[in-house]
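#struct-help
A.M.: can someone run this one for me? Single chain, 285 residues.
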Amino acid sequence: MTDDPEAASSRHGDDAGIGLDDVCFVIGRPRSGTTVFRKMLATHPGMFDLGEIFNESNSNSYFHFLRRLQVRDPNALLPSRSIDNFLAYMRRHHAIALEKRPNGRIAVLDVKYDQAHLLCVPWWNITSLPRLFSLIRERGWRVIDIHRQNSLAMLVSNDVAIATGIYHSRALADGHEQRAKVHIKPESLVRQLRATTLAYRSVAEHFRDYDKYIRVTYEEMFGGHEGRHFKPALLNGLSTFLGINNAFDPVPRLRKLLVEDIFAHIENADEIRDVLGQHDLLPPS
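D.P.: on it. Structure tokens below:
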């Protein structure tokens, strides 16, 4: 590249650079299927995967960008600079994406609900969604919201992943399943289940009537080939939404980690069943 997009933002303003319209955010709760979904999108020759942009272990993360920016400009970390910095980050990495995949049209960015607040701003209403969600609408970026109907499976899967350090099937030998169990605190689980319902409702309401938003349900992603491939109808719908041809690979790059009966991964399963039954929170059978 002949220019540095990190520096260009301060010279040319918010709308300088390339690619700010060629962006698709994949959002969702942790363990909701955003990773397997994002990796499927990245099989398309016109898409480039930037990963979880607020995950420190991702070399393409926003925080690695900020660290480099702050070396040249100590004031870069001031809250008043946060939106300009983020737009510069978007330009920088879309330019990198085009270098690596010249025919690419869309950069894919994974943001977990629980990390969206990490785009810090000077003023934020504590009762509102993080500023990033408003920025997505203001800039006209595409967004795919991944929901998981079985919130219990999502939350237990997250606890198992944290306890074992195994987040994806690539960490297991072929043919092996995750058999670990975790002890679940009933009161905390009830709070998290209700918070998930509220989060899904709040995000969906925020993007209501926004034509660049779609919602995809994890349980409805797969079908055919014993339920191991992405459904053709889903892929056709995505190609229409993204304005590209359907050249996605339907074979998932990751496989499911936990067994179907999520209670098999809960040490105090009988206690959890009783508590969820009392609160009418048992998942559909």
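A.M.: thanks! The longest helix spans residues 186-206.
D.P.: also worth noting: The domain at 5-278 is CATH 3.40.50 (Rossmann fold).
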